[in-house]
Amino acid sequence: MLDVKDPTVQAALRRACEEAGLPDSLRGCVYPLLRDAEGDWPTCCGGGCMPCSSTVADVAVRTLELLGTPRVSPVPS
């Protein structure tokens, strides 16, 4: 399990949020995915949620890539 409070993880997450345009105030939405990097992730429901689950998943995937530990399981589409 990834320690989301680790400074290295926080730096990667901050960068991934910036790249995706996800406000820093919504970073906490990504924590559950990082803690369970190979688990089942939610998909977009089409309801116009903010943040959208697909954006959160994109940020999580990018964070893992930046950390050098890319997700192995397929990302839900």
Give a quick set of tags describing it.
mainly alpha; 3 helices; 77 residues; single chain
Structure description:
By secondary structure, this protein is mostly helical. 43% of the residues lie in helices and 0% in strands. It contains three helices and no strands. Helix 1 packs across helix 3 (53-66). It is globular, with a radius of gyration of 11 Å. The protein starts with 6 loop residues before the first helix and ends in an 11-residue tail after the last helix. The model has no long low-confidence stretch (mean pLDDT 94).
The radius of gyration computed from the alpha-carbon positions, rounded to a whole number of angstroms, is: 11 Å
Question: Alpha-carbon distance between the termini?
Answer: 24 Å
Number of strands: 0
Strand fraction: under 5%
Tell me, rounded to a whole number, the average pLDDT.
94
Structural class: mainly alpha
- Give the ordered list of helices and strands: HHH
Enumerate the spans where pLDDT stays under 50 for 5 or more consecutive residues: none
Number of helices: 3
Helix content: 40-55%
